[in-house]
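User: Sequence for Histidinol-phosphate aminotransferase below. Tokens please.
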Amino acid sequence: MSPLARARPDLAAFVPYASARRSGLVGAIRLNANESPWADNGDSAALNRYPDPQPLALRSDLATLYGVAEDRLWTGRGSDEAIDLLLRGFCRAGRDNVVGLAPSFGMYRIGAQLQGAEYRALTLSPAAGFALDPERLLALVDADTKLVVLCSPNNPTGELHHDVVGWLAEALAGRALLVVDEAYIEFAGIPSATALLDRHDNLVVLRTLSKAHALAGARIGSLIAHPDVARFIGRIAAPYPLPLPCVAAAIAALEPAALERTRARIATLVGERRQLADALAARPDVRTVWPSAANFVLARFADGPAALQRALAAGVVLRDVSAQPGLADCLRITVGSPYENETLLEALA
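Assistant: Structure tokens for Histidinol-phosphate aminotransferase:
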């Protein structure tokens, strides 16, 4: 069965907006897009022209980075856009549902709600280290489930779920897409789930340049999937998802020297993560620090709001995640530079 069999049936014959750049027509003089014929002074990037819907050079670089064929990849404005398009392209409002985890990244729940789809969450236990029982997750799936979502490493808890991806993809074949969000995988030191794509047509992997590659402000995210799914997402996407300056920044970040710097920074952050977790665990007002495979640690304090206020008083901003299930008095702490981490620890003392 094609993975598109679970897409919204009303979009089967959907015809995308025929933008000037999507037409593929080439000429020295371009009078088909109502652009200005003049670039502003100092504009060396030709910003008077619309960008390509999928910039060829960036697409090639990303496919190389992720070790996948170009026809499996669609790139847009961060993983958030890919999440939104998956929900809009596969879920019928008022009928379909999405299955995920709690606690986890909130945009899946919010996106489902905006689409009018039910979000069903399997609550993970802090006492069990947020371990996932895939059979309990599968029990939430029914005939109206379109997407099953795993963040691995999970956010805000930091644990990995890659060990169940193959089993779940097989169990969901013909029933739902399995979406594996790998926003933080560079910090985990494990292979990507993209290695399973050839075996599972219903597997979708999301990647981003926002974290390890230091391009959060550029908003470059990628969806990697069966070519039919990648093409479908491209059909329903906005015609010009990537601004030219963001494309240029991403291409520069994927040059060999830049990738070498990225690898060095990842190694530094992994070391800092270990030191930060150890230092927090040694504090008398910290109840638990959970192991993390991401660029953050999750800690439960005796008094989370008080710890947050001490950090804020020193100019250090942390993430209060206490509203998520099982995370009372918990703060998610991004691993910063050595100086930033030391400043935080001094503020909490």
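Residues 256-281 form the longest helix (26 residues).
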